[in-house]
Predict the structure of tRNA-2-methylthio-N(6)-dimethylallyladenosine synthase.
Amino acid sequence: MLDQVTKVHDENRQGEAYAPEAADIQTYTKKFYIESYGCQMNFNDSEIVASILKEEGYGPTRNVEEASLVLLNTCSIREKAETTVRKRLTEFQKVKQRNPELLVGVLGCMAERLKAKLLEEEKLVDMVVGPDAYRTLPALIEEAETGQKAVNVLLSREETYDDISPVRLDSNGVTAFVSIMRGCNNMCSFCVVPFTRGRERSRDYRSILQEATDLFQKGYREVTLLGQNVDSYYWVNPVNDNETVTFANLMEKVAQISPLLRVRFSTSHPKDITDEVLHVMAKYENICNYIHLPLQSGSNRILQLMNRTYTREWYMKKVDRVRELLPDCGISTDVITGFCTETEEDHQETMEVMAYSRYDLAYMFFYSERPGTLAARRYQDDVPDDVKKRRLAEVVELHRGQSLASMQQDVGKTFKVLVEGTSKRSEDQLFGRTGHNKVIVFPKENYKKCDYVWVKVDSCTSGTLIGTATGMA
């Protein structure tokens, strides 16, 4: 498991129930309730599930008592998420006692690993559905309605759901995620994703462009191209294999939809950030200058045990290359402390690479093993918890200084900001993000959501820029 200090998952959204669309005036006789846990891919999958269920006559609800179908979209990356899901399933059993016809199902990454326990041993659910089996949900629901336990956790080498238009989950109407690929081939030894989501497969670029275009026409002004490893996107036309589209090609095509549509992407693997990608980013003003470049460790020995396929020296040269071609690019990272056999020397090497890279944002974890990973099978989790946590605290302290310095460098500068909404702290303030992915707040005045505004930075905290609008962008 990866326990984190700065959260890679949005903790405010963990367990969030799917909200009905404000513009949906259809009346439904059957209703579903769905909670999502984990990464943004899971939230995007819940939108796909909502679309499939809508075609079957199900409408969403945030009131579990009026639902005929309850679904939990689950995550296996973190133990905390699994514990929470089990607790929620126990609570739904009490609801089911009051409504025996209620069906309860588990979706997503926990499905394969825990199907036997959840179905047979603990008898907490009626259905278990893996992330590649959502098209079979209608048939599985029918099966469960007869009293049978319904299961489909088969992984696919083809499924991308490219013909399904997601029903947006509790959208702000400004930003949206567009899934461009599924699965991962990297086999990092600490990660369970290749076993829960299968091998990489890229979605037809034409369906991606159609989805992004539709979002823009509906008023959205930012899309994030989403995948476990977006930079390895590679689509080959099944009819004409001479037609291929790389990630750089795809990003350029999306950027060309409109200069008013901002483009971001998440998540990357350092080995796949090519010069071609960087040149496309430099070419288009509406492609945000921000790259997530996970380090994980600064020790070559630990990187080899993690199966990360690069060295610290190679990684630092990649950082240099990003800053050479994109001088003002924001860079974020992931760091794991206390991986198997990590020594104080290994830990200090991680600190050195962090100091060299000067990250704007970092997601920092201490390691504990997840069942089913290569590390769990091959290595002993032998670094004591107190040592892991002490090293994590040192990493966090180093990064806090870097983050504050990065924010302070922006004071006095003016940035083009896309307004995402009203600040949670004040109705008189708006918030948005710069192209470098830094949050900025400023007085509302006459500006509104979806506006592009020039904002001058007056001051900052370690996590937020504070400014004053100078005019429409």
